[in-house]
# Entry
Amino acid sequence: MLEHLLLDLGFDPRKLGDAMPKLMFNDPDLDYMIKLRTHYTYLYEHSVITQTEVRTLLGLNPTVDQEDMYIYRVKIPTLLLSAPS
# Structure
């Protein structure tokens, strides 16, 4: 694709040699991304930000059906079943 752009601009990619432009993209820093997401979750767990804010920061839909969350579908039923009668 880059060669076609150069041809459209009037350059001959075969003659450019070392002057041939290169497209370079930064690799995503996975460690940084993990730390940032963990930090957002920490802020939510310690009541610094709301669920809507943390979901927005994480790039998720801020509106969610609370009844469909793990705690309501799995955790609470498990606790109720294991509680002494």
Q: What stands out?
A: The chain is about 55% helix and 0% strand. The CA atoms of residues 31 and 58 lie 15 Å apart. The radius of gyration is 25 Å. The chain has a mean pLDDT of 89.
